Amino acid sequence: MTDLPLLRCFVDGQWVETHHRFPNINPVNGQLIGRVCEADAATVSRAVEAANRAAQGPWKTLTVQERSALLHRIADGIEQRFEDFVAAEVMDTGRPVHQARSLDVARGIANFRMFADLIKTASSELYESTLPDGAKMLNYVCRKPLGTIGVISPWNLPLLLLTWKVAPALAMGNCVVAKPSEETPSSATLLAEVIQAAGLPHGVFNLVHGFGPGSAGEHLSTNPNIDAITFTGESRTGSAIMKAAAEGVKEVSFELGGKNAAVVFADADFDAAVAGVMRSSFTNSGQVCLCTERVYIERPIFDRFVEALKRRCEALVVGRPEDPGVDMGPLISLEHRGKVHSYYQLAREEGAAILCGGDIPVFGDERDQGAYIQPTIMAGLPDTARCMREEIFGPVCHVAPFDTEEEVIPRVNDSAYGLAASIWTTQLSRAHRVAGQIRTGIVWVNAWFARDLRTPFGGTKMSGIGREGGRYSLDFYSEISTISIRI
Ligand SMILES: NC(=O)c1ccc[n+]([C@@H]2O[C@H](COP(=O)([O-])OP(=O)(O)OC[C@H]3O[C@@H](n4cnc5c(N)ncnc54)[C@H](O)[C@@H]3O)[C@@H](O)[C@H]2O)c1
Ligand SMILES: N/C(=C\C=C\C=O)C(=O)O
């Protein structure tokens, strides 16, 4: 037991062990794979103080070019330890190795490189004006660092989502105290090692492990000496963090939950739409905020489309991360599996027909101690059913027919969430017309999770506050200031 890794916090350039430790579990087989040092309030305060101090030190004198070079050096460091990061993501989450490679770690590198390049070309605004007395004024806008950013990230895409926030925060000259999910501490710890090796001044980046309420998450979000909070996680957690931020009127950026819809028109490229809906429903075992949980299919192709989806769902390879051809692994934890499974039960109680899956698989091997669940397709629920309104966050979607655009668009929009949607059609005018009426932050047409990192990303309603991506991140992680000079 003693040779299991101990994951430590990283505060003011030093690795810190704490008294309280919590277990890190492999969701493939329920095995203990390590212990993690939980940051108490004092450790979080020390991290915030170190960040505040570093913000006034050499870090603030760096030029944009120097900061850009450091971000590229961090990206280089992730690249050099690519397989370590893949192993860390796979160990913590049980995801397919090929996904950790092509999505998680690749995006961790891309996030740092994108913002490293963007800050070198980011423009600002300048206006010339004349005062009533005829005096000329030059008015220009500049972005100054906000100060210390609290970054709180979830377990579903651990490195992708942590770096999506840390990269622009550092790029804009801020200091960071990051609190990754208690479920996925490993890749965040590796990132701290890479940042330390890159030579950022002590205190610029700090990492505190722990939970939410009564632990590091709450200690960070309630700390009066952070200047802004960027959070990705459940909507109800966002609400709790917003209450904490309100105390000190802190700026917040929230990427929250979703109940995303796919709309498949009869004129869609049938095979592409089937593949697209499969990918958007079952990627990462459905544990992506952008995943589809509601599929609306135009009636003339409904039966054929559902039959095709059912066949593909039954053919999904549910296995270990390194299994050949594996499509999906376990859920993140037995607790989350219990939640998703309870929705499968609820769906039956609400009158759903389970077309595929609907239960916990039995493998007859060590995976039976893991958090596996069957990929599932259900049908027959009214739009008012809880399973149609609440985020399940598992490998499950509901299929329903529709007859007209006028009918389906209000059904898609009838949700407390507004994060993402996907539309499958070959009619160009219909694509633009329908996409323009869907109330989500992101609409894909004949695609899903296709990302240009320069575009704004975020949700409406319960799906979030603010946008990050490209210049939207530069703006959020800055104090935007206007300087007006009489000339
Ligand atoms: N919109 C997006 O871009 C996006 C991306 C990924 C995940 N998500 C959402 O995240 C959820 C799944 O992730 P999760 O289960 O880790 O979410 P979660 O809200 O349970 O936890 C997210 C993070 O917040 C911390 N936390 C929890 N309670 C807190 C509190 N009271 N104060 C401070 N910190 C607290 C957790 O420790 C964790 O680090 C899903 O709802 C999913 O839709 C959204
Ligand atoms: N924020 C992003 C993805 C979010 C995925 C949610 O699970 C991104 O691609 O930048």
Key descriptive features of the protein:
Aldehyde Dehydrogenase, Chain A, domain 1; six-stranded mixed beta sheet; alpha/beta; Ald_DH_C; 487 residues; seven-stranded mixed beta sheet; single chain; Ald_DH_CS_GLU; binds (2E,4E)-2-amino-6-oxohexa-2,4-dienoic acid; binds nicotinamide-adenine-dinucleotide
Topology:
Blueprint: E1 6-7, E2 9-11, E3 14-16, E4 21-26, E5 31-37, H1 41-55, H2 64-80, H3 82-93, H4 97-121, E6 126-130, E7 136-145, E8 148-152, H5 158-171, E9 175-179, H6 186-198, E10 205-207, H7 216-221, E11 228-232, H8 235-247, E12 251-255, E13 260-264, H9 270-282, E14 292-298, H10 302-314, H11 334-349, E15 353-356, E16 376-379, H12 386-389, E17 396-402, H13 405-413, E18 417-418, E19 420-424, H14 428-435, E20 442-445, E21 460-461, E22 464-465, H15 470-476, E23 478-486
Parallel strand pairs: 1-5, 8-9, 8-11, 9-10, 11-12, 13-14, 13-19, 14-17, 16-17, 19-20
Antiparallel strand pairs: 2-3, 4-5, 6-7, 7-23, 12-22, 15-16, 18-21
Helix pairs in contact: 2-4, 2-6, 3-4, 3-6, 4-5, 9-10
The structure holds nicotinamide-adenine-dinucleotide and (2E,4E)-2-amino-6-oxohexa-2,4-dienoic acid (6OD).
In short:
The protein is an alpha/beta fold and 487 residues long. It is built from 15 helices and 23 strands. The chain has two domains: 6-256 and 463-486, Aldehyde Dehydrogenase, Chain A, domain 1, CATH 3.40.605.10; 260-452, Aldehyde Dehydrogenase, Chain A, domain 2.
